[in-house]
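Chapter summary example.
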Amino acid sequence: QVQLVESGGGLVQAGDSLRLSCAASGRTNSYYVMGWFRQAPGKEREFVAAISWSGQSTYYADSVKGRFTISRDNAKNTMYLQMDSLKPEDTAVYYCAAQMTVTDYSARDSYAYWGQGTQVTVSS
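The structure predicted for these 124 residues follows.
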């Protein structure tokens, strides 16, 4: 059992940058695949990015590739999402997720542990 807490969201203008953090606690170790999902009002939760436990492999949704960078610091039990060149379409609640074994890293049902979410709002 692990707990995940996101932070770093806020209100920014298009083109600005923001860095989200996800802190893990409880029964944590360095062997969890972790990912970011987001959900806009009236829409389903969608995949944003994922990272292997070692940080060696990363995966991105096409909509954020080249703009967002996922990373993790296992010594701090923290995952990050650096968001650059933000667009109004990026406005959503961003959720941190984790799972020990993931076959489909982009599927919501692949992850058992979720944070409470942090709001990101990008104005035009």
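To summarize the output: The chain has a mean pLDDT of 94.
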